[in-house]
């Protein structure tokens, strides 16, 4: 039995990064890029390393580029952590797994470390493969929590639930992480939005700008936990952008959606340090007449464009700063 599963890149549209602060967000899955996992029964449990997991390099420069793109350990630790967390979940739920071993491998086309959630996509695809192999059903609303726990508890990655929710639900999702709701039911309130309601969207990314989001979030989180008024009020305002955006999508108020995307970034910039190269992505897109905000913690942006002429300008102008522009494919 050969099992193949897949999970897609994602982009935060509005409300990012308030998901880690009991806020609200809207995100989309981006099917232009994906991570896949292949699993089949074998005598021993084997995790097959991929070329990107190698410890053999052509040169010092090759090692430097590989580490910049993939981190120090590639994707194998993500598989190990997901398998461990899956086993622990089954134990706590008193699910007896059959004595079956498997071989597992992954592949991914998601640009790494640019805010499109390549790591969590590999973990989501791994959970889906394990669920199918062992015939275990994990409630959809619970699965993002397990994916987040895999990253935070096993790998020390600081992140929020937004990425994992959209990669598990797919499409376009409005998420409410109100603290009372989270504490009462153990997860947020998730509402799917018809992708047909989405306006003309573009995504631009530059792999040179990659960084680990945990490092980006740490200072703001400590300030938020201390109750610093600027951080608390700004994060609440970012969450409100998503609430207004949901209403604007329903009304098809494209003008307001444009304003909200820009407001999202401008609010973020009040409390986060934005590098010059990241800011140049925003400024170049806005100079073309498009709106622009980060899809995640930096390295890629998302926004609305008016027509094909504007989209072509985005292609040309962003290419000048080594950024690639795509139209996200959302189902």
UniProtKB/TrEMBL annotation:
A Pfam family assignment: GHMP_kinases_C
Membrane spanning stretches: none
Start and end residues of each GHMP kinase N-terminal domain: 79-171
Keywords attached to this entry: ATP-binding, Kinase, Nucleotide-binding, Transferase
Keyword DNA-binding attributed: no
InterPro entries noted in UniProt: GHMP_kinase_C_dom (IPR013750), GHMP_kinase_C_sf (IPR036554), GHMP_kinase_N_dom (IPR006204), Glucuronokinase-like (IPR053034), Ribosomal_Su5_D2-typ_SF (IPR020568)
Taxonomy, superkingdom: Bacteria
Residues covered by the GHMP kinase C-terminal domain: 247-309
The UniProt record lists the keyword NADP: no
A GO MF label: kinase activity
SUPFAM superfamilies, A to Z: GHMP Kinase, C-terminal domain (SSF55060), Ribosomal protein S5 domain 2-like (SSF54211)
Signal sequence annotation: none
Entry protein name: GHMP kinase
Provenance organism: Spirosoma liriopis
Taxonomic lineage: Bacteria, Pseudomonadati, Bacteroidota, Cytophagia, Cytophagales
């Amino acid at each position: 039995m050969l099992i193949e599963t897949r999970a897609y890149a994602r982009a935060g549209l509005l409300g990012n990064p308030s998901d880690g602060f009991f806020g609200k967000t809207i995100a989309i899955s981006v099917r232009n890029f994906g991570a896949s996992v292949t699993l089949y029964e074998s005598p021993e449990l084997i995790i097959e390393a991929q070329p990107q997991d190698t410890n053999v390099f052509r040169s010092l420069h090759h090692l430097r580029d590989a580490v910049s793109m993939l981190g120090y350990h590639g994707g194998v630790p993500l598989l190990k952590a997901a398998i461990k967390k899956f086993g622990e979940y089954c134990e706590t739920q008193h699910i007896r797994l059959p004595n079956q071993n498997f071989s597992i491998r992954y592949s991914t086309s998601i640009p790494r470390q640019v805010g499109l959630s390549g790591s969590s996509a590999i973990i989501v695809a791994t959970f889906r493969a394990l669920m199918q192999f062992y015939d275990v059903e994990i409630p959809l609303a619970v699965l993002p929590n397990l994916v987040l726990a895999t990253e935070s508890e096993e790998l020390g990655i600081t992140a929020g639930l937004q990425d994992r929710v959209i990669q598990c639900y797919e499409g376009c999702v409005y998420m409410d992480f109100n603290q009372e709701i989270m504490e009462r039911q153990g997860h947020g309130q998730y509402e799917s939005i018809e992708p047909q309601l989405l306006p003309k969207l573009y995504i631009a990314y530059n792999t040179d700008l990659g960084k680990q989001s945990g490092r980006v979030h740490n200072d703001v989180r400590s300030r938020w936990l201390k109750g610093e008024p600027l951080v608390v009020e700004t994060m609440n305002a970012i969450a409100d952008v998503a609430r207004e955006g949901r209403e604007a999508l329903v009304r098809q108020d494209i003008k307001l959606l444009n304003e909200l995307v820009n407001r999202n970034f401008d609010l973020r910039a009040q409390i986060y340090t934005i590098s010059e190269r990241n800011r140049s992505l925003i400024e170049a897109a806005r100079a073309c007449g498009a709106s622009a905000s980060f899809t995640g913690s930096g390295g890629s942006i998302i926004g609305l464009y008016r027509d094909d002429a504007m989209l072509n300008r985005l292609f040309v102008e962003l290419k000048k700063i080594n950024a690639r522009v795509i139209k996200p494919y959302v189902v």
